[in-house]
Amino acid sequence: MRTLVILLFCALSLPALAQEQKIGYADWEYIFSQMPEFKQIDAELKTHGAQLETSLKAKMQEYEGKVKAYQAMPATTPEAIRADKEREITMLQENIQKFQQDAQASLQKKQTDLMDPVFKKVGKAIEDVAKENGYSFIINPQMMGGGDVLLYSDEKYNISSLVLKKMGITVQPAPAGTKPN
Fold first, then answer.
1. Which of 45, 85, 151, 180 could join 174 via S-S bond, C-beta 3.0 to 4.6 A?
2. DSSP assignment, residue 148?
3. Distance CA 44, CA 132 (A)
4. Which residues, other chains included, contact 67 with Cβ-Cβ below 8 Å and sequence gap of 6+?
């Protein structure tokens, strides 16, 4: 991946010798942190996750109760009843595993459904800002594929605040300990 990035920058620098290219970057994480929609999406995802967790806990309690009841059965319990209870416990265990898988898929789907419009909105705003300000390239400085996409950046090329302004979002002050944009 790093080799690909280096080759990309080398390829981009050749035309830059013939004409000046304007390159900027947009910090997606910062942009999202400033968006009211993102805060609402985060709250919805937390609520959905909490509901799933509550359901899982109820299933686990039922399972644990059945196991305790099975373990408390007297030694004189007929084998047919023991086998029936074992099947019931096994089914509950399988249902819990399936529920966990389904819950994970549900949470991922909800995140995708909620985030897709936001990604499109931010992408469109980045494209508009880039065109309006004469940028040839906009790069995402976050880590991708284990390596930095951007090895050096001059803060004057960070267009994150312009993107937020384009979307009509008032920039909130950065929390202590974070880099301002």
1. 180
2. E
3. 34
4. 89
Kindly give the residue spans of alpha helices, DSSP state H, lying in the chain: 2-18, 28-34, 36-71, 79-132, 160-166
pTM of the model: 0.66
Residue 10: its H or E element = helix 2-18
Per-residue pLDDT of the chain (181 residues; tens, 9 = 90+): 555 445 455 555 555 444 677 888 888 888 888 999 988 999 999 999 999 999 999 999 999 999 999 999 999 999 999 999 999 999 999 999 999 999 999 999 999 999 999 989 988 898 899 888 888 888 877 655 555 565 455 677 888 888 999 999 888 776 655 555 5
Whether residue 93 contacts residue 66, with contact meaning beta carbons closer than 8 Å, is answered with: no
The residues near 121 (Cβ < 8 Å, ≥ 6 apart) are: 37, 167
* Residue recorded with tokens 């359901």: 55
* Helices 79-132 and 36-71, packing angle to 10 deg: 170
Pick left, alpha or beta for residue 158 (phi over 0 → left; psi -120 to 50 → alpha; otherwise beta).
beta
DSSP string, 146-166: TEES-S---GGGB-HHHHHHH
